[in-house]
Amino acid sequence: MPSEKDVIQSLRRVVDPELGRDIVSLGMIKDVKVEGERVSFTLELTTPACPFNAQIEREARQAVASIPGVRDVDMKVTARVWSARPTSPEDLFTNIKNVVAIASGKGGVGKSTVAVNLALALAETGAKVGLLDADIYGPTIPKIIKITNLPSRSLAGKVIPATTFLDVKVMSLGLFVQDDSPVIWRGPLVAGAVKQLLTDAEWGELDYLIVDLPPGTGDAPLTLAQTIPLTGVIIVTTPQEAAVAIASKALRMFSKLGIPIIGVVENMSYFECPHCHKRTSIFGSGGAKAAAKSMGVPFLGELPLNPDIREHHDLGTPIVIAKPDSPSADAFRALCRQVAGQISIIAHAKMSSESKNSD
Q1: Distance set, CA 16 to CA 27, 42, 146, 280 (Å)
Q2: Where in the chain is the domain with CATH 3.30.300.130?
Q3: Which of 74, 133, 264, 314 fits a 20 to 30 Å CA distance from 28?
């Protein structure tokens, strides 16, 4: 008859493709029980959005089923998002596992579009997600996504964030400034506003807080880095050489701050004809991928230029919600899986470093 030891040994043959270690040593196997010819266990994935979840699940089930004497495999699959951001005893945000900044070197590259659809795609997987609009000069998030519940005040005096689709929590200056008058502030006021939006909110437990930064390399990203340690930053660019060059400068700025680069994503990468499905690279192609390779950071993928994305943002229903079966929505979900996978890699490196230091 099979034993628990046999089960564990078989599962050691299953390796997480991203982390390069077996799922037993990664702590992903829980509650192993052997009852005659029946084996039950829990597979706890590192994130519900991992791009290799299906492969790991399949290989784990096959590994146990191949043990002589096993006739029935009962595998329960759960997910627990790993925290990849550095923490300290003074950390006021221990309930936020990961803070991901969405940045660009210049405006007009669709950074907010990426932030909103990434947040929704992560929430679709079952993760707890928040969305912070840190673009003080142009807080567009409330205009491109419908708010289902406005912010309110808790008994403790904190601000309960607004909510949108899939219970994503939202904080933005645009929720508190009702008119269209421009925000004419100098750097210290911008930094203070970003810090207040972050610290005054009662975020609760979050797996991911997505932060839409203003374009460029000004006070907002510096304030964020100083207020709450970031898991990493995603750089958004378009294919043009000038846009990629400016995005590369932003990337180097974050690197100098010691913030991990989750990767580079190329937005408006191509237009696909809805009739013949031929792809046309209107703004060129390959620039972001080549830049990511030259700087040794991950390339997270290409996102399409599609009128539907703009149309549904104007209606407040991002493409992931409005047309969930569309190729555009699938592109954002692919980005979501890449981002979640890279965060798991950063988290694993952090845990390994902490383990070595404790030894």
Answers
A1: 11, 16, 38, 36
A2: 4-79
A3: 264
Structure tokens at 332: 């954002």
Separation of CA 261 from chain center: 12
Place of tokens 């399949």: 58
Domain 4-79: assigned CATH number: 3.30.300.130
Q: Which residues of 81-98 are buried (b: 16+ CB within 10 A; e: fewer)?
A: bbbbbeeeeeeebeebbb
Which ranges in the chain are annotated with CATH 3.40.50.300? 99-333
Q: What is the pLDDT at residue 139?
A: 81
> Which residues touch 302 (CB under 8 Å, ≥6 apart)?
265, 266, 269, 270, 288, 331
pLDDT band at 183 (very low <50, low <70, confident <90, very high): low
CA 230 – CA 223 distance, rounded (Å): 11
Per-range mean pLDDT, top range of 80-84, 173-177, 191-195? 80-84
Could you tell me the CATH superfamily of domain 99-333? P-loop containing nucleotide triphosphate hydrolases (3.40.50.300)
Count of alpha carbons within 13 angstroms of residue 172, beta-carbon side: 32
**Cβ(60)–Cβ(75) under 8 Å?**
yes
Question: H helices of the chain, where?
Answer: 4-11, 53-65, 111-124, 141-144, 187-199, 219-227, 241-256, 287-295, 307-314, 319-322, 327-358
Q: How far apart are CA 353 and CA 183, in angstroms?
A: 43
- Residue type for position 166: L
Instruction: Give, as one character, the DSSP assignment of residue 291.
Output: H
Residue type for 23, please?
Answer: I
Max intra-chain CA distance, the chain: 75
